[in-house]
Amino acid sequence: MNNVLVLNASYEILNITRWQRALCLIFAGKAEVLETGDISVHSPSIEVRLPSVIRMRHYVRKPRILVPVSRNNILMRDRYTCQYCGLVKKPSDLTIDHVMPRSLGGESYWENLVAACKKCNSKKGNRTPEMAGMKLRKKPRAPQFIPSLQINYRDDWEKYILYAAPINSRTAVN
Ligand SMILES: [Zn+2]
């Protein structure tokens, strides 16, 4: 669990790296620490708290990752939680809801798709949340890397991942 989230100077996600690499970037003055974890490493002369999130001091050019819009990726992004009632469900009990219904022109991209339990989805029907008197728990966004690759996802990464700028997400649902 000592992986480190690396953000670009712009706060966009660059990658996830090992703590050894993160310390090299910090000691070389190339990155700053935004969050530290509970674990320290010692040398004879110094003790260093291991970082959890670091940010590059200079902008690094990197091709953007396009995360495919798929049922599984939507469910993982929403952590198997109905975005209307907030209940965590089994994948088989969840549906993918078009926030703006397809019948009203809603398209299948990250910002218009959320996990919804069957009960909430049928209550909402072919209406917008406003029309149905229902409220989304959070604004759906495109993740910046494939949720299934977030193996060692740490709690203090969440604010950076959720508030990162959305990537180009106009990919059709599989
Ligand atoms: Zn629900």
Could you walk me through the main structural features you see in this protein, from its secondary elements to its overall organization?
The two termini are 32 Å apart. This protein has helices at 19-27, 71-77, 118-124, 129-132, 158-162, and strands at 4-7, 13-17, 31-42, 47-56, 94-98, 113-117. Strand 3 (31-42) and strand 4 (47-56) form a beta hairpin. It folds into 2 domains: 4-56, no CATH class; 64-174, Orthogonal Bundle (DNA Binding (I), subunit A), CATH 1.10.30. Helices cover 18% and strands 24% of the residues. With 174 residues, the protein is α+β, with helices and mostly antiparallel strands. A 4-stranded mixed beta sheet has the order 2-1-4-3. Strands 5-6 form a two-stranded antiparallel sheet. It binds zinc ion. Zinc ion binds next to strand 6 and helix 3.
Topology:
Layout: E1 4-7, E2 13-17, H1 19-27, E3 31-42, E4 47-56, H2 71-77, E5 94-98, E6 113-117, H3 118-124, H4 129-132, H5 158-162
Parallel strand pairs: 1-4
Antiparallel strand pairs: 1-2, 3-4, 5-6
Bound molecules: zinc ion.
